[in-house]
Write a structure and sequence with these properties.
Length: 163
């Protein structure tokens, strides 16, 4: 039988994984085999720029933590897996997708975005969504356009009334 200290350490890791999944808007599992140390550091740096991070856990501990949370990702937990997570729903997915284009060794497996399980296809669709700042810029541009059109109409109307 395993030592009580080892079991306690494993339970701490399981609790850490459960806490991370609960507190994150998105969690993405990916295969990191083939990435060099420098590439891993570059990936971590890019993730941290968006308020995200990643960590490597044993698959058995991830499987146990996810099963405790009633999430079934057992098919995706074969081979080495890393878990990227963040408070933004799309940021980790976008960073990993962009990084995978430059480094084919990185392979996205599956994700949990806003509580929904997303396969590879859904993750690639999410990666195409503009960033929050980009969406806000589009919204502001649309609102400015409406205000501009209204001011032009009012100006033309006032000029017509003056004649």
């Amino acid at each position: 039988m395993a030592n009580a200290n080892i079991l306690a350490m494993k339970q701490q890791v399981i609790d850490e994984i459960k806490s991370t999944v609960d507190q994150s808007s998105s969690v993405v599992l990916f295969d990191y085999r083939g990435l060099t140390d420098n590439e891993s550091k570059a990936l971590r740096r890019k993730l941290r720029e968006t308020g995200s991070d990643y960590k490597v856990y044993k698959n058995t501990l991830m499987a146990r933590a996810l099963s405790d949370l009633k999430i079934d990702l057992s098919e995706s937990l074969n081979g080495p897996s890393a878990m990227a997570y963040g408070s933004d729903s799309v940021a980790p997915v976008k960073v990993l997708s962009e990084f995978a284009k430059e480094h084919p060794a990185l392979i996205l497996k599956v994700g949990i975005v806003d509580g929904n399980i997303s396969d590879k296809d859904a993750l690639s669709e999410l990666a195409k969504i503009p960033s929050r700042e980009g969406l806000l810029t589009m919204l502001a541009g649309g609102m400015i356009g409406i205000a501009r059109d209204l001011s032009i109409c009012l100006d033309l109307y006032s000029q017509q009334k003056e004649q």
